[in-house]
Amino acid sequence: MNQHLTHILLRGAAAFGLLALAACAPAPIYKPSPTTVVTSPDIVSQSPGQFANADVIWGGQVVEVHNLADHSEVEIVGYPLDSSQRPKVANHGGWGRFIAVLPGYVESFDYPTGSLVTLTGHIAGSRDGKVGEANYVYPLVSVAQSHRWTPDEMNAGKSNVSFGVGVGAVIH
């Protein structure tokens, strides 16, 4: 086979492989509304009034749950979301913190520390607080829907196959 034909076949195989991997990725769980803004908690914390009542789709890692008399608050470190709206924790710094406000009592067992969540809701103001000794402004999100990700869901659609050129060794 000539070199040009080999090159075309390799490019076609690579394109097919990428399409096949993309087809395996789960679809987004929440559909943005016309008023959904694409921003991050750290941006909102800098000027919360600018985002009052805006809809958001945010995700991140649970820090802790606080149950109050008529609602619960879940403190979350925000992370960017992938195309399936799963938080991208690996290789990404935090995106700022926010407080998810849920009606009624939330069992902390349902939102354990360190678990990954994605939610949709609207910005319902902000609250001054502290992260350690540092002052912090927490955006408050009135939650419409939330989803806690299982390890299987976080790995769904991710390939264990990698492509590369070169020589390597795997030592077990």
UniProtKB/TrEMBL annotation:
The keyword Ribosomal protein does not apply. GO terms for cellular component: outer membrane. It comes from Dyella telluris. The keyword Signal applies. Residues 1-22 form the signal peptide. InterPro entries: OMP_Slp. It holds the Pfam family Slp. Coiled coil: none annotated. Keywords: Lipoprotein, Signal. This is Slp family lipoprotein.
